[in-house]
Amino acid sequence: MAQIEFDEGTGTFPYFIVLLYGIFLLVITYFLWPKSKKRDDRGSECQCGPCCQKRNKVEKRWTVDKLFKIIRYLVLLVCWLFLFWLIYWAVPQEPVGESEEWDLFKTLVIDREATVSQIKKQYRLLSMNHHPDKGGDPEVFTKVAKAYEALSQEEARENWEKYGNPDGPTVELLHLV
């Protein structure tokens, strides 16, 4: 039976932030987007001097309203562009803890049907090339050494073939938000 552990380092936090910001932006856009207004027919308006002056003042005021309207649209546009950037930023984030399966045979560059003597011979060759004291990569050397230990010991090899891990069964993590 698989055990379930809560893992806080799943990398789902960026998705949560995008979701909250997206909901917030939808609500703000709904309230800031202007409602459509029906224009009155200008022919039925009074054409006397004071009424015309009053309409001209109102129309001049409309230019200020148009400026605020343009600013409002620009702010909304910038906010939506920021949301798209957040989505772009969040999507390539790889969840923490997910890794590809470790293939011991690929690490030692041998066939799956290799004998213990072939494994030992290949380990000696790779360990000479990758040993840190001889200018090799310490990470590669560590992987080669672990692969050799796992394949040279009968119990570890059986565990790797059965469970995919030389140490035996491991805890399966379910990433809960």
Automatic annotation (TrEMBL):
Pfam families named in the record: DnaJ (PF00226)
Domain of life: Eukaryota
Residue spans crossing the bilayer: 12-33, 70-91
This protein's UniProt keywords: Membrane, Transmembrane, Transmembrane helix
Coiled-coil parts of chain: none
GO molecular-function terms, A-Z: protein transmembrane transporter activity; RNA binding
GO annotation (BP), single: post-translational protein targeting to endoplasmic reticulum membrane
CDD domains linked to this entry: DnaJ
SUPFAM superfamilies attached to this UniProt entry: Chaperone J-domain
J domain sequence ranges: 103-164
A GO-annotated cellular component: Sec62/Sec63 complex
Name of protein: J domain-containing protein
UniProt source species: Amphimedon queenslandica (Sponge)
UniProt lineage: Eukaryota, Metazoa, Porifera, Demospongiae, Heteroscleromorpha
